[in-house]
Amino acid sequence: MPIEIFEMERMQSTWENIVDYDLSESGVRPLTLRELMEMGFDLDAFLDVPLGYSQSNGTLELREALAALYKGSTVDHIEVTNGTSEANFLVALSQIRAGDRFALETPNYMQLWGVPRALGADTRTFRLRPEACWEPDWDEFDRAIEGGARMVYVSNPNNPTGSVLSDAAMKRIVEGVERAGALLLADEVYQGAEITGPRTKSFWGMSDRVVVTSGLSKAWGIPGVRIGWIVGPKKLIAECWAQHDYLTIGPNKLSDRLARVAVEPANREKCYARTRELLGKNIEIARQWVRGFGGFLEWREPRAGAIALMKYHASVPSLELCQRIRERQSTLIVPGKQLGIEGHVRIWLGGREDYLKEGLRRVAEELKPLVVNS
Ligand SMILES: Cc1ncc(COP(=O)(O)O)c(C=O)c1O
Asked: CA angle 200-202-206, nearest 5°?
């Protein structure tokens, strides 16, 4: 299947391990294996476990634990995957055919821009509006699904805005999806990474047309374990499993075991609390930094997630700006262009405080001359 380059992921994989300061990330500083041992992972017992294949759709124990998080679901409503990205990929691969209509909100994590296009779908976007607390532009939403659609994709909480949809907006999206006879793919990988406010509600249960994807990468802070999942109608899950057999067969044994520890209710809350504490401190650092620009930078503070989307008041394209920052300051941030929103940059808030401060100082070195000229 020919597919266009996933620009943001490629930019990250090329540079993230080379630069001095990587502020292109989007999760919190990851947990270590030792920290997972402190939460109950028995490393010593695992040393004697034969490293055979694991249950390819996720062990029963892990699927039972995950089913407990999504009211009304059972182990047959769940497929465990290699990260949320594989979860999204399997849903698209199993459901999208050439000529289908696919609608996604922008800005967004652009995986489900490239994949449906590669599958031959008529892929359309509808914008989130900053002036409306990043709620969708409803005219664009209606146009994107007008006459029927196969799938609508949202990330909620959203990457890169960190915004959370209101109950009314969620309801309106579901109504549109039902009207269009579509499926709603709700990517909820940032659920649990709320900096302020209550836990983000899941779309799960709002309609039998809802499919949820999520994983341990963001709110839990364990992306390296590469565990994600799909929660959906049984038939769709069976279709995803069929694709999975051809793709990676399944997640590895160690990851499945680690995930079982992480998703235990007490550990899950511990991980979420760690994320909230870390982000609560770092957002204050970002606030002060933004203030120092006296209006040149504009943002709506994220409600969830370790990312801040900032609009800059200068005409330089975001790709050029970020390249300059990388070359001169050895610091990586994400150009808005790669997220479907020009004139913005995305900055990671999830690292150590001193790391964030020095990364921001370096970014400022390149932004300040623009302030003078703006
Ligand atoms: C909205 C969204 N979905 C999926 C992913 C991929 O997550 P994972 O590391 O679990 O594959 C990301 C990563 O940034 C993301 O932001």
From this structure: 140
